[in-house]
Design brief:
By secondary structure, the chain is α/β, with parallel strands linked by helices. It is built from twelve helices and eleven strands. The chain is globular and about 45 Å long. The N terminus is likely disordered.
Length: about 300
């Protein structure tokens, strides 16, 4: 966990100086820093496995990569409700929350069709959150469908394993749900709990006020692979904005830490994939340091 936090602090440090030329302020992660994400990448990939598999922690390579994991709860049906699981990693000393993603052909309509819109967060789930903050209605509905069950599971895991650390992961739609969980859970869990969020192939989730809230209150890293078009959707012209914390895997294999929100450098996803047709959907599932998403 300490190494992941160090990466987040590096990203936060460059984010604090937005006037610096974007290309000059981009830094490459070291091999050691990249490797620190691998356990979390497998947890995100395991989100695609059925609730039965993850509760038994018997899901092939994804589970074998973190053999000491202690599952606490799982849910979803893989159809109307995305699969999810919660448990404890004793090596990382953190509760893990993971949500199922989806393939590009299924998520693309959610983020490009005209029938979605920005909406305020449910005040019952998100008490005290400003009405200026708006999110994608479909992502909001998906998060709301499992929110209270996930909260109960996290509370149980924290109590059972006496930890104050929660790490939330997800890929694609699962990353969007996870990001909303990252706003939701701190409103309900005890003061002193530490939170880390790692998303892969994250689409834009909310508006400028949402992105600013995330930057001010969360520890987020969102990792984009090569020319994946999903992270550039929904479009900024619709009012959607990415929070800071991007890491972009370039064609060379370098992992570039891109400061600020929607960094326009060609080393970052917005500059590398300026339009959907410039992207390659096959990059969406990875590999992320050798890990392809899916169960």
């Amino acid at each position: 966990m300490a190494s992941i936090v160090a990466v987040l602090l590096v990203a936060a440090a460059v984010q604090a100086f937005p006037s610096i030329n974007t290309r000059q302020s981009i830094t490459a992660l070291t091999t050691s820093q990249i490797d620190q994400f691998t356990s979390y990448t497998y947890y995100a990939s395991a989100g695609y496995c059925t609730n039965t598999q993850t509760l038994a922690w018997d899901c092939g390579t994804n589970c074998d990569a973190n053999p000491e994991f202690k599952p606490v709860a799982s849910g979803g049906n893989g159809d109307s409700v995305q699969y999810w699981f919660v448990g404890y990693d004793p090596n990382l000393d953190t509760v893990i929350v993971s949500h199922q993603g989806t393939n590009p052909s299924e998520i693309m309509p959610l983020i490009t069709d005209a029938d979605f819109f920005l909406t305020t967060l449910d005040s019952t789930l998100f008490p005290g959150i400003s009405s200026d903050i708006e999110v994608h209605n479909g992502f909001g509905d998906a998060q709301a469908s499992t929110a209270t069950d996930v909260l109960a599971a996290v509370e149980s895991a924290m109590s059972t394993y006496s930890t104050k650390s929660v790490t939330m992961v997800g890929h694609s739609l699962g990353a969007a749900i996870t990001l909303l969980d990252s706003v939701y859970l701190p409103l309900w869990l005890p003061a002193g709990t530490t939170f880390t969020t790692i998303g892969y192939g994250l689409p834009r989730v909310g508006n400028q006020a949402f992105a600013n809230y995330v930057d001010a209150n969360l520890h987020l890293t969102h990792i984009n692979n090569e020319e994946d078009p999903i992270p550039i959707c929904p479009g900024m012209f619709l009012g959607f904005v990415h929070p800071a914390g991007e890491v972009h895997i370039e064609d060379s294999g370098e992992w570039a830490a891109c400061p600020g929100q929607d960094n326009p450098s060609t080393q970052c996803i917005v500059g590398d994939v300026p339009e959907i047709w410039d992207g390659d959907e096959s990059d969406h599932d990875g590999p992320y340091n050798g890990v392809e998403m899916g169960c």
